[in-house]
């Protein structure tokens, strides 16, 4: 099992970010990529999204297992004045295409297996889609997904995996009904990795949450891990939004600023607040790119089914398709 992992636990970013960014900027006096004021470009963006009534963004997760910095190090690779980055050396462990409807509160997610074999601009041959962020940061990842799915995709949210541990601990753990025995041991990992969960209801702290999200069933592979991520995400959101966790907001604000980066303007994010009460957490529309696993020249790839993928994207994101 690889050292990296990720989950879509911040699919509620539209709601959380508005709170974190607004309170954090005014109370904690922090800077954030998300907080950029209302310039002419932001106003134009706001008008476009207001007319459409929804936003499409790519949610990505990276980590700092090598100790060189996660989101913080990627921010330093941004080329000033350009929508591009120098090579980051950070692969994404999860890429999830997310659509949020400001009028209804509906959330639609499409998980893209990290081993998906695709074309990446500037590369000579097809590679795994999670390589795109390593070669050129979030903007190259955006372009790669845009080309792969033929959609008009402009916005990204990148989250450092450490946010999982910090926020889960901040809310006192996440209660999960683990569906089956989960066991995995890798003595070669640094430190050695032991995942050992019995089925049943239990409360996971930050470290346990990381282990749960890293687990990949042998019989289901990456798709099985995606199912675990979806289960965790739904429970995480419900439990984070409970009234008892409001007093823990300052710590979560700090976590947001330390571990989250996005190019969505703050005035657009704030639009999500008014529809927070409309979100039905039990009916988040979650999907996965269809396809099969295959070894090519000794490497394990996920091969998307082109026709089924095209139909699914058209069904979920028809208003964002490119001509």
What is the structural class?
alpha+beta
**Alpha plus pi helix count:** 10
Kindly state the number of beta strands.
Answer: 14
Ranges with pLDDT <50 over ≥5 residues? Answer: 1-37
Form type:
globular
Q: What share of residues is helical? A: 25-40%
**Span from first to last CA?**
40 Å
**Main sheet strand line-up:** 11-6-1-2-3-12
Record the SSE blueprint.
Elements: H1 13-28, H2 40-52, E1 54-62, H3 71-76, E2 94-101, E3 107-112, E4 117-118, E5 127-128, H4 132-149, E6 155-160, H5 162-170, E7 174-178, E8 182-186, E9 193-197, E10 200-204, H6 206-214, H7 221-240, H8 249-259, E11 260-262, H9 266-269, E12 285-288, E13 291-296, E14 299-304, H10 306-317
Parallel strand pairs: 1-6, 3-12
Antiparallel strand pairs: 1-2, 2-3, 4-5, 6-11, 7-10, 8-9, 13-14
Helix pairs in contact: 1-8, 5-6, 5-8, 6-7
